[in-house]
Every structure is written in C-alpha cells, then in structure tokens.
Design a protein that fits this description.
With 115 residues, the chain is an alpha+beta fold. It is built from 3 helices and 5 strands. InterPro entries: PAS-like_dom_sf.
Length: 115
Amino acid sequence: MEREKLLSYILDSYPYPILFADCDHIIRYMNKRAQYHYYRERGYRDLIGKSLFDCHQNAKSEEIIRETVERLKNHGNEAFLHVNVRNERVYIVPVRDENGELIGYFERFEMNQQK
C-alpha cells in the first residue's frame, strides 16, 4: 500500500476533524470528518486550495490564528485556541520538516472533559 493512501486512512479513522493548512493559510488536506464538518454541517464547498480564512470569516478568529501561527514559526508547540459550541477543545498543531522548519499546521479537536 502506498504511504500517502495509508496516512489518509489513518487520518480518516480519527473521529474529529483534521484540517491541514500551509504557512500561507491555504488548506491542503481535510480528513473525512473535516469534510463532513465543513461541507455538510457548515455549508462550505471545495475548500482544498483555498484560504483557511474563507471558513474563518470572523476578524478576531483570523487575528488569533495568525498570531498563533507566528508563535509556531518561532518553534512554539501546540496551542489551545478555544472550546467550540460542541464542547470540543480546538488546538493548532505545528507540522515541521526534517530541519524543524514550520511547513504548516492543523486544527485538532478533542472532547472537553469536564468534571
């Protein structure tokens, strides 16, 4: 099995949306759960190759994402953004090349465990 296909299957098995964007905030990959979330639930179409800010149209959201990615460029780690309306914690996770340089980031969601 080719590596790219295998990685796609692995990411598609994750039960939360994963959306990868490059350092110019262009969406390059969405797992199946992200496609469902953005296309079916939120009504967007054909986001691959488009700006992340096409679906984050709030100026405050854009500012937070841009600031967070700047911190990631300076070798920052995963950053917590907020808890969404589904009670999921949303993070931005850096993706780096073999030299440690930031090549992009992905949004990661997880259930917010409250006691």
